[in-house]
Automatic annotation (TrEMBL):
It comes from the Bacteria. It comes from Sideroxyarcus emersonii. NAD(+) binds at residues 73-86, 279-291. It catalyses: (2R,3S)-3-isopropylmalate + NAD(+) = 4-methyl-2-oxopentanoate + CO2 + NADH. SMART domains: Iso_dh. This is 3-isopropylmalate dehydrogenase. GO terms for cellular component: cytosol. Homodimer. The keyword Oxidoreductase applies. Substrate binds at residues 93, 103, 131, 221.
Amino acid sequence: MKIAVLPGDGIGPEIVAQAVKVLEALRSDGLKIEMEHAHIGGAGYDAAKDPLPEATLKLSKESDAVLLGAVGGYQYDNLPRPMRPEQGLLRIRKGLGLFANLRPAMVYPELVNASTLRPDIVSGLDIMILRELTGDIYFGQPRGIRTLENGERQGFDTMHYSESEVRRVAHVGFQIAMKRNKKLCSVDKANVLDTSMFWREIVTEVAKEYPAVALSHMYVDNAAMQLVRAPKQFDVILTGNIFGDILSDEASMLTGSIGMLPSASLDENNKGLYEPCHGSAPDIAGKDIANPLATILSVAMMMQYTFGRPDIAQRIETAVRKVLQQGLRTGDIYEEGKQKVGCAAMSDAVVAAL
Ligand code: NAD
Ligand code: IPM
Ligand code: MN
């Protein structure tokens, strides 16, 4: 198992160090794990004036999987766009062809009270958001800032989805739904956007190949509302890049904290990049208070999807559950009566439970 480790910025290095502890524990248990570190994001800019240094992309391509922390920081916010940390992330996703981004939102029974929503709304929740990751307004050309004939300046971006892009992610969505509760809700804005009208047409076509899956469509504004009104109505949510970005952050709060939400970004062959859904959290960086569980659970997804070891994924998830049962909580999921611990102590407990 050759894994490229890209800590990135902010809390990235802290949380990735915790996930690496888990990988090291698995290695001393007999798994053949090789890890190599490289820079991405602001760290890439600092080291090589490039948010995705060539060596990082090369290492990632040569590895079976990539473990990533997060990118971004205040000190980089005014750089020209190609130099910004976020570009490093977008380029590695595109460069590795990682079009299918799986963002599962699961509520652990131990955390039903950590959610800002009522326990009866969220308990038992288990939904999978499948976000298309290499298309949409994120990558559409042309884009930029221009001056109009009347002299006024204007910012602009282009949203588009080609048929093959929609088709391949739709197939992934239906295949995931087949292994779950066989319900897929495609989320779009087809009442306004041509891109979405086209998306809906293609998804409906692909659905014919999966008659066992119940397909529904929902407008994204309604979906945002339904996610907090009655989230358990969903099984798989299939959506585009920007809607998926927003809805997955929203869904994270059903689970208690964005610090709990892992992700897998896969190519056609299940080679993948694994990262928490949250960002570099510069407001809490360097304080040993970040929640490392999203990153540790991303390692579980890596074992399942890239390495075909659901047994190890299960072991990691069980260890996380055990630590939550012991009452350990980082600040973001803390509730009265529990034991508040830092980032490193939390992962030490997971390793012990493992
Ligand atoms: P963020 O996700 O970094 O933080 C949002 C809030 O959640 C903050 O209050 C933060 O402290 C908290 N939070 C996030 N992760 C946490 C964790 N593991 N434990 C406890 N609390 C946690 O989003 P933001 O503040 O909008 O963005 C900060 C920077 O991160 C920006 O530069 C942004 O571009 C970048 N970003 C990167 C990624 C990524 O690398 N995948 C994702 C989102 C944002
Ligand atoms: C995420 C982040 C990224 C995105 C940014 C940092 C480019 O918000 O991974 O969710 O928008 O995809
Ligand atoms: Mn996001």
